[in-house]
Automatic annotation (TrEMBL):
Pfam families reported for this sequence: Cortexin (PF11057)
InterPro entries reported in the protein's UniProt record: Cortexin (IPR020066)
Name of this chain's protein: Cortexin domain containing 2
Record lineage: Eukaryota, Metazoa, Chordata, Craniata, Vertebrata
Subcellular localization, as worded in the UniProt entry: Membrane
Length: 52
């Protein structure tokens, strides 16, 4: 039972937070890379209403 009591709940939350933050960062990097690669196609739907 001593090995289970050494598990810290705060440490688990911190690890989960870091993992979710890392996943969010990967998604943002992917989206920004797609925007840099082809900015007109990626931002076409947002610029369309301002043209009219």
């Amino acid at each position: 039972m001593d090995e289970f009591s050494s598990v810290d709940v705060d440490k688990g939350f911190a690890i989960a937070f870091v993992v979710l933050l890392f996943l969010f960062l990967m998604v943002m990097i992917f989206r920004c890379a797609k925007l840099v690669k082809n900015p007109y196609k990626a931002s076409f739907t947002t610029t369309e209403p301002s043209l009219s």
